[in-house]
Here is the input.
Amino acid sequence: MKRIKTDILVLGSGIAGLTFAIKTAKKYPERSILVLTKTTEGESNTRYAQGGVAAVWDPEKDNADKHVADTLDAGAGLCKEDIVRIVVEEGPERVRELIEWGARFDKEKNSNEYDLAREGGHSEHRILHYKDLTGWEMQRTLMEEAAQYPNIQVWEHYFALDLITQHHLGRMVIRVTPNIECYGCYALNKQNSEIDTILSRITVLCTGGAGQVYKSTTNPVIATGDGVAMTYRAKGRVENMEFMQFHPTSLYNPVGENPSFLVSEAVRGFGAILKSAEGEEFMHLYDERLSLAPRDIVARAIDSEMKKRGTECMYLDCRHLEKEAFLAHFPTIYDKCMSLGIDPMQHMIPVVPACHYMCGGILVDDFGRSSIQRLYAAGECSSTGLHGANRLASNSLLEAMVFAHRIYLDIQDKLEHLDYQEDVPDWNAEGTMDPPEMVLITQGMKELKDIMSYYVGIVRSNIRSKRALDRLFLLYEETEDLYKTTKISPQLMELRNLITIAYLIARCAAHRRESRGLHFTTDYPDLLPFVENSVL
Here is the structure.
């Protein structure tokens, strides 16, 4: 076991974590910044983003008011308008910084102008992209820039277990305790199985989403909601967990695949049309924007058509699109389809909805401050108020950069006034042993995903929510018994974190007695006139 001190601790190495680390390292070369990632530096939710980043880029055709209006419309009445305007107005400058660091967004042929795409819910072409690998390109750019600063250390294969607060000093901490403070975290070094105590002046959570709570998800296997679960255990506030976004078009693979392969929304923006197996269009039955309606509408439409027709998927028709242009924009999607014997220029692409993005999360203010002092959050693990009840396509990468910058600004007057909490005890693993059978963990994970997929998926009801909560409680008790008696492993901690996420989703879903945005319940199919966020 080690006791490690760092001025700033960042959990997560995606776009939010590295953007914050780079800005802070450049401003304070004498300050130590430690970035922990539970796998490798390049493995993050950012890397899997295909479509792009939304920003008002062409002032002759687009403006901030249009982008704000599109975001508010998609968010179904729960966006915080002041936050939306902050992100939309500050976003273009954050994108320019990324370009200065080396991001290579696509440009129009024989032109120096960026090739701006349009996606569902957007009224204008404003999506900057790099082929269909935008997230990969942004991650590459950030990793190369971060490597320029010697005061940034990125430790790979470190799994954060718990946030350290007054609770670990023997004090009673409950959800209404005032002035809860974060002093760092306990982290499992996966390479030697030792649990280190990491003390910090400031901690920033950039731990990504929680898509692995469902059977079918476009999220990587690392997306297990660790940051949200740790914050909730530390008695921090979370909100709007019922709003889990299902991407309408993941590639249907009958043999199963984890993560599911994403067929970017940009493909529909490029002109692809949703159809049935018989080649019939159906989106006109659900929304006048057809295949470019917001994601919640399109996902429910596909789910509804599959159930009515008794089919396992619907289809995306790209056959009328120009092949050379399709290949230039979507080479990865084309190659993936071809590997499964599907030629997008000859056959329609089979698609199904899959869990894609967590719109709720750790409740933060306009500078990324959580309800726990000295603890910030940015990116998908946070709930800033930008997304409301449904995220507008390609707003997430923008939000991550804007809030990483705003956290960087907020800590400038705080660092020198904060010190380490020296009285924190080391992790106590006495009385634990190796788990008797790994099947207890792997089967628990399977049961969890089944519960959430069948009972708290795209369409919900009161009885489904109750069954989910009843079954999750049993799974929680079994897993906590295992946690108290066995040695810590990443698999056990991920199961424990996902059970917490599942509980939060199911509980928030049970409390929201209306249908709004991504939350649709058959018991309350209409919107209520009174709108509020669900805070736990």
The chain has a mean pLDDT of 94. The chain is about 35% helix and 15% strand. Residues 247-353 form a domain with the Flavocytochrome C3; Chain A, domain 1 fold (CATH 3.90.700.10).
